Amino acid sequence: GANYCEADGAESKKDFQHKIGICKKEAKETKYWIQTLSLLQPEKKEELRVLWREAQELTLIFSKIIQTSKFNKK
């Protein structure tokens, strides 16, 4: 969330793309840690699956923003 706020206040299109890229990386890292927790705490697997899906949705959203932003260079 904090990284997205940074992207929203970007000073240029290039800065915006960079900061959205950081958002995407952080979402992917979150997925990694959720998978790790799932292995360490199998009893919480279903709860963690919901969180993993949310992180996946955010990853896809940020990917689309990057793709659209690069496509609409002006």
Report on the structure:
The chain is mainly α and 74 residues long. It is 84% helix and 0% strand. It contains 3 helices and no strands. α1 packs antiparallel against α2. The mean pLDDT is 94.
Shape: elongated
Counting helices, strands and paired strands, the structural category is mainly alpha
Low-pLDDT segments = none
Count of helices? 3
Largest sheet: none
Q: Report helical residue fraction.
A: over 70%
The total beta strand count reads 0
Secondary-structure element series: HHH
Rg, please?
15 Å
What structural keywords apply?
single chain, 74 residues, mainly alpha, 3 helices, 84% helix, 0% strand, elongated
Write the layout of secondary structure elements.
Elements: H1 2-8, H2 13-40, H3 45-71
Summarize the structure.
With 74 residues, the chain is mainly alpha-helical. Helix content is 84%, strand content 0%.
